[in-house]
Amino acid sequence: MRPAAQPLPFDTDRDRWAHAAQEAARLHHAVRAELAGRPSAPAAIRAAFEALLLIRERTRGGWLRWDMFGPNPAGVLREAGVFDPEQHRLGRWVCRTVWGRRPPLHIWTRGGLGLPRPLPVGRTALFAVAAFAALGPATSLLPAATGLLAAGAVGVAAAAGLPAAVRHVTRCRVRVVATGEAYAAVFFRLLAGEQRLRMLAEHSERSELTRAAAVLPRLVWDAAGLVPLAADDVEARALLLGYAQSLAFLVDQAVEVERQEEGGGGGDP
């Protein structure tokens, strides 16, 4: 069986994909109208607007970003993000809080931190209120207007810097593979095999499949780390290709066993 070139969106859930595609189509018209009104917009801003059109799928171990406006209307995988599977549950929650979301329209860099511009109104208001509550005793010694200004300034600084700082600190716990990587296609095929084997394990009572599926998160994490190295490192390339081939072979064997059992001609191997 020839391995699939990419996983299926939302684990083959057609209803979720249809809903996401409808939302993306509505956003597509708004983005195109905005770009048409800004013909001289910088390339970075245009790229940020284009990134908004990608459908974000939250997965158990990270996220996927899909392009439904390319040559394949069923969705083309453009980016895959993977979280470190061995980190604590709290660490994974923190990573998910700042990674895998829609990118802000504008980004500017200060001290290695990617800061959004302009700041989201809701986040800024939340941090400003929190800062005012936290600085209450200190600002009580100042005039009311000065205290409000101080709390607002702290809130704006926290709204801009805190998520960016968390994102910067947790970067080592996240691996991102984009379609522009030389060996991204190999990794996407590996993700397709991971999805197929995981879904087989979920619908099967065979302990062998359950044990095999349990090691998949670590396999995907390791493979994501090999992708940027594979272009120049022969050993990394061989490892990545070996991972993909081994997983594809394992999926073929699992599918064959399932077919035999469904046909009544299989038993325990």
Can you describe this structure?
The chain has helices at 14-36, 43-51, 89-98, 121-134, 136-139, 144-169, 184-202, 207-214, 216-230, 234-262, and strands at 55-59, 62-67, 76-83, 107-110, 113-116, 174-178. The chain has 269 residues and is an alpha+beta fold. A hairpin with an 8-residue loop joins β2 and β3 (76-83). The model has no long low-confidence stretch (mean pLDDT 78).
Short description:
The protein has 10 helices and 6 strands. The chain is of the alpha+beta class and 269 residues long.
Core attributes:
alpha+beta, 269 residues, 12% strand, four-stranded antiparallel beta sheet
**SSE arrangement, N to C:** HHEEEHEEHHHEHHHH
- What is the 3D form? globular
**Whole-angstrom Rg:** 23 Å
Largest sheet: 4 strands, antiparallel
- Percent strand equals 5-15%
Mean pLDDT value: 78
What low-confidence regions span 5 or more consecutive residues with pLDDT below 50?
Answer: none
**How many helices in DSSP terms?**
10
Q: Which structural class do you get from the secondary structure elements?
A: alpha+beta
By DSSP, the count of extended strands is 6
Order of strands across the widest beta sheet? 1-2-3-6
Portion in helices: 55-70%
N-C termini distance = 20 Å
